[in-house]
């Protein structure tokens, strides 16, 4: 990279530097005008007389004031007469802007010396309409650097990307999250394309070439080919990468990024005060800042807040890691959902996010399909991820896996993979206190563990829970008018929480119910027992005391507990064999589900168990499973077959010919499969699990051969 270096006399000269020895530097963003200072002008020493010299001077002086000796300007730091250098510069420009310590935007058409009739400086209006926002190349110059500062033509500072983010968002339509440093791969292709739509470039092909960094793709630069051709080549390249990912994902379309958002929403939203403690924690700091420390394992009992802690850490680390050009990929395991409870699902999720963050890594995805057979899928995917992690161009990479204990299929394989993975990657893992995980992740060189039960950490968790309680109570409408009552409720919750977030979350949920009035609140928090299991006992007792609906609730809880994925209301209604008057109306099924207390929640007509600990509790309850789990599986299998016999008909979707393309199939209204979709897919899994544990191994072999035959 070629930089300008300023000396003590205020003079500057060009300096070629190898990529591994680039000092901190500032970078200029501007729109080209007449008489710019070009590379050859600086080499010949004739640049000073050009009008553009003022800009060079400004950038050098401002950098000097900010403690930076070096700076870069596109007009004079690239020798555009050298085609190879030009191509390299166009491919590297986004990275150069991203790596700059500061980016100065110099706006020649915004003045702070213009005043309106009331004597106010009118630069805001000029800012909104300035030319800089209409040019193509300035898009990446706005997005890539972390710090972007805006200056008027008099070199006066107007604000920065953060302080002016609302205005910039209004002017450009670029989402705030993108301006705040969210990875660009989290925005759809169409969305990113729209950011450039109204912008112009001097050379028409630049409309495509200026997007290399925005999409992290590169194509050869061919000036003269025309805008349409350049854009087509760019789109083809993006599509090629995208298809590759889509193929990986078609096996199981669960995007970890969306999964994280879903989890946060389901758990009532993320509260920063309840996780920020971790950034002062010595083990965490050691992992984050010591390059020798490769793995941090956060362990704790159910409901201690591990998942939400990891969500918070991801949110806080994503911006700095992305800004420094690194990758952050993550995966949240969930035992209650067969699509995200296996080692294969974890690898696939990590590969997917890594490849999206750094598309160059797509080259390791194989041409053929991703092996439906589990054993093969593990071989293929573990090889792919290992190669990605060994890639010499891999950026600084952080990999996060939440709830290892909920990875119920092939966890030992996954742990072995993590432990022997190449040394340049940093792992952040979380799980409950489980012996297998303990053994595999025992302390070693470069490995740290953070136990939430350890005395010093328990204190911090307890403070975090107090903050969580305060935050949640301040949102409870029923307590807002009575401060003394609110304080009493808060004090009792502080005393009884016992270091468990989930316990608090469940009590708050009860306090938020529609029929809870302010005068009920004290009684509720006084009566509710401390500890999760005792609280679940109480919830179950309440359900069993219903005069009429307790049996319906039991059946629903049973089916929700053993189901391999969250069920829709209509599915659970049929599988639980509720009476026809209830099954016939989704609203009636919803009413019965609502009677199952806080064990279940409904979102978008789908039923979720409130937490893994609720599933564990219900699975062990003789009240819910009077004849044991295998019998429950047998009954669900039998019920599934019965429903399928009742509903399945030849050509239900009216496709007529067997070779009809699946992507063109339209779902009839009403959908005849709506109540049996789950049964069609999972009846055989219930059959397998109805067979006694001893024979399960053979059943798995049978399942595998069945899949191969398919
Ligand atoms: N930072 C936070 N912000 C908001 N809610 C939180 C936070 N931390 C914990 N909670 C609440 O506590 C509940 C339990 O937290 P979480 O699911 O993270 O626990 P966990 O330790 O992962 O449990 P398990 O090991 O049983 O899966 C969440 O459902 C949520 O309601």
From TrEMBL:
The gene from which this protein is expressed is het-r
Q: Do the record's keywords include Repeat?
A: yes
Look up the domain of life of the source: Eukaryota
Protein name (Swiss-Prot/TrEMBL): Truncated HET-R
Signal peptide location in the record?
none
Q: Which residues form the NACHT domain?
A: 294-441
Q: Which UniProt keywords apply?
A: Repeat
Which SUPFAM superfamilies has this protein been placed in?
P-loop containing nucleoside triphosphate hydrolases
Q: Note the Pfam families from the entry.
A: HET, NPHP3_N
Keyword set includes Lipid biosynthesis = no
What InterPro entries does the record tag this protein with?
A: HET (IPR010730), NACHT_NTPase (IPR007111), NPHP3-like_N (IPR056884), P-loop_NTPase (IPR027417)
């Amino acid at each position: 990279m070629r930089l300008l270096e300023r000396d003590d006399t205020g003079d500057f000269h060009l300096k070629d530097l190898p990529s591994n020895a680039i000092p901190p530097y500032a970078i200029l963003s501007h729109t080209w005008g007449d008489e710019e200072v070009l590379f050859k002008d600086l080499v010949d020493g004739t640049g000073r007389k050009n009008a553009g010299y003022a800009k060079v001077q400004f950038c050098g002086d401002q950098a000097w004031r900010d403690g930076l000796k070096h700076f870069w300007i596109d007009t004079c730091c690239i020798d555009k007469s050298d085609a190879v250098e030009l191509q390299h510069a166009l491919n590297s420009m986004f990275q150069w802007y991203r790596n700059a310590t500061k980016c100065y935007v110099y706006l020649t058409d915004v003045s702070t010396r213009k005043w309106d009739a009331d004597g106010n400086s009118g630069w805001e209006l000029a800012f909104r309409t300035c030319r800089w926002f209409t040019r193509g190349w300035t898009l990446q110059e706005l997005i890539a650097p972390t710090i972007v500062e805006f200056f008027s033509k008099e070199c006066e500072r107007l604000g920065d990307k953060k302080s002016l983010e609302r205005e910039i968002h209004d002017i450009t339509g670029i989402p705030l999250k993108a301006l705040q440093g969210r990875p660009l791969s989290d925005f759809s292709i169409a969305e990113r394309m729209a950011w450039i739509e109204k912008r112009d470039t001097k050379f028409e092909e630049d409309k495509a070439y200026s997007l290399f960094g925005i999409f992290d793709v590169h194509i050869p630069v061919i000036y003269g080919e025309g805008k349409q051709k350049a854009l087509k080549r760019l789109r083809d390249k993006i599509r090629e990468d995208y298809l590759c990912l889509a193929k990986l994902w078609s096996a199981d379309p669960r995007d970890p990024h969306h999964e994280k958002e879903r989890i946060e929403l389901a758990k009532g939203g993320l509260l920063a005060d309840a996780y920020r403690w971790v950034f002062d924690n010595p083990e965490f700091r050691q992992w984050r800042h010591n390059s020798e420390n490769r793995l941090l394992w956060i362990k704790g009992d159910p409901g201690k807040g591990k998942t939400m802690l990891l969500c918070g850490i991801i949110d806080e680390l994503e911006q700095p890691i992305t800004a420094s050009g690194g990758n952050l990929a993550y995966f949240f395991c969930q035992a209650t959902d067969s699509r995200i409870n296996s080692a294969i699902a974890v690898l696939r999720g990590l590969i997917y996010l890594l490849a999206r963050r750094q598309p160059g890594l797509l080259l390791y995805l194989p041409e053929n399909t991703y092996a439906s057979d589990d054993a093969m899928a593990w071989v293929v995917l573990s090889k792919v991820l290992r190669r990605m992690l060994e890639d010499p161009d891999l950026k600084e990479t952080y990999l996060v896996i939440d709830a290892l204990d909920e990875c119920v299929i092939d966890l030992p394989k996954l742990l072995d993979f993590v432990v022997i993975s190449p040394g340049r990657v940093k792992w952040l893992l979380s799980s409950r206190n489980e012996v297998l995980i303990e053994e595999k992740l025992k302390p070693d060189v470069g490995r740290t563990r953070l136990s939430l039960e350890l005395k010093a950490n328990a204190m911090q968790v307890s403070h975090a829970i107090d903050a969580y309680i305060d935050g949640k109570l301040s949102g409870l409408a029923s307590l807002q008018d009575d401060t003394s009552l609110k304080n009493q409720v808060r004090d009792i919750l502080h005393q009884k929480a016992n270091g468990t977030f989930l316990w608090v979350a469940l009590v708050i949920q009860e306090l938020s119910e529609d029929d809870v009035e302010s005068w009920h609140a004290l009684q509720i928090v006084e009566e509710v027992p401390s500890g999760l299991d005792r609280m679940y006992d109480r919830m179950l007792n309440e359900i069993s005391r219903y005069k009429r609906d307790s049996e319906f609730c039991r059946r629903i809880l049973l089916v929700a507990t053993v189901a391999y994925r969250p069920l829709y209301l209509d599915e659970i209604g049929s599988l639980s064999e509720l009476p026809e008057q209830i099954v016939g109306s989704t609203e009636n099924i919803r009413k019965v589900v609502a009677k199952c207390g806080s064990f279940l929640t409904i979102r978008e007509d789908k039923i979720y168990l409130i937490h893994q600990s609720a599933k564990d509790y219900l699975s062990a309850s003789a009240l819910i499973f009077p004849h044991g789990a295998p019998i429950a599986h047998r009954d669900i299998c039998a019920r599934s077959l019965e429903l399928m016999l009742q509903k399945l008909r030849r050509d239900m979707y009216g496709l007529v010919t067997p070779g009809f393309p699946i992507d063109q199939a339209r779902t009839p209204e009403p959908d005849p499969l709506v109540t049996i979709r789950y049964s069609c897919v999972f009846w055989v899994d219930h059959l397998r699990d109805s067979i006694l544990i001893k024979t399960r191994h053979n059943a798995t072999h049978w399942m595998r051969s069945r899949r191969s035959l398919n």
